[in-house]
Amino acid sequence: MFKYGVVRLHDLINDILDWERFYLSGRLQKPVHILVDTLNLEDVNSVNLRAAVSASLLLLPTKFSEEDLYAKICSLSYTGDLRMLFAEDRDKVKKIVRGQFDSFHSMYKPFLEEYEAKELLGSSSSSNHHGNILSQISWSKKITKTLLFFITLDCSLSAAHVLVSSLPQTIRSQIAMNLGGGNVHELAISSREEAAKCMQKILKWRVMVSSARQAVSDLLAVGAVNGMRYLARKMRKAWKS
What we know:
By secondary structure, this protein is mostly helical. The chain has one domain (9-240). The chain contains 12 helices and 3 strands. It has helices at residues 9-18, 24-27, 41-59, 66-76, 83-86, 92-99, 101-117, 133-143, 157-165, 169-178, 192-222, 224-240, and strands at 63-64, 121-125, 149-153. A 3-stranded antiparallel sheet has the order 1-3-2. Helix 1 (9-18) runs parallel beside helix 3 and helix 11 packs across helix 12. The chain is globular and about 55 Å long. The two termini are 23 Å apart. GO terms for molecular function: phosphatidate cytidylyltransferase activity.
């Protein structure tokens, strides 16, 4: 059994670049296997991946693990998803990240390097061994599983501005509107927390609308009987978790 859909390339690109519905872009923030690529999707999707890292860093605390980062990225497209209320495994995000950790690392390695070069990210460990993030990760894994390794984040207002500037323009426009400024070029945030809260609210609403639309589409596509059977299986998994 496969779940499948058909989408126009124009709509796909719009969602990747602007998070218009945050449905396809959310899928592509997780590891996928591309069979045939006539679009050079990897290059186009790099904008989406950078924005996902930026959004997640706005929501993370000062210190976090590499797994925490990928879990936060993965959870972006589930925030507000109606299915998560009653029809999804509560540990779904953790299972996705732990089952495909190396793939997440390969996907997001260039952006960790980029943000480290901008001095937005650093590293620390329980043994006070310092170095760049990626070599530190490799070093900590070789020594012992009990070693605590953390990525450290610059939580200053200037750093928050850099992260917000990497978000899609439609998201920045809504943030500007919600914070009292009508122009995305005049976006002014008074605190990192304010920007994070506003962004999270916008993403939650987009995911909620998309998930409701998708649920209706699923029922129309597969029929009421098959749809209810599928929903029942999902709900059983949710209750077990």
